Amino acid sequence: MKFITPVTDRTRQDILDHTAKAYFNVSDWKRIYENSLVLKALIEKVFGITIPFTVLTTPTTATLPTALEINTLIQNINNILMASNLPGTPNKANWLAGVSVSSPDYNDVNAWELLTALVMSLLALDIDYVIYCGVAATGQPRFYQHRWRQYGWIVPAGSPVRRARTGVAITGTSLTRQNQFRRYS
Prior knowledge:
about 180 residues, 6 helices, two-stranded antiparallel ribbon
């Protein structure tokens, strides 16, 4: 499965002209749902987290998605946005079923797909800035320090010298005390 370029340019003129973009089809549902699956897998792999995600069945030309299924689809996209920690505004996910209540229009569907496109583009940029590193260490290696002490080239300090038990770099006196430095004479 790969990320399919979302359709985000639906307009009122599409509805007046009865173009293909004027209708929310099974192919639109599949594209939005599969793009959300791709984003979920990418974010879980890159960030090592688990995203709450509800699996949905793909509607057919003989079935219509219910308000609950539409809300679940939107909530999955919102969960992906929240888990990615990327900027963006979650979409409304509390549509009601019925004749006298409002239903999603082309602007709402554009917003759903635009959110998936935004997360995908920002995620691609975010991956480029992730820096993987090992444990930070400071100073010279122990064998190198010991070589100088072994031959007596360094005069011992008059007072006890504090040396860290770890090679992790930290700053501040309170952190130094918390790190339990040991004292050498």
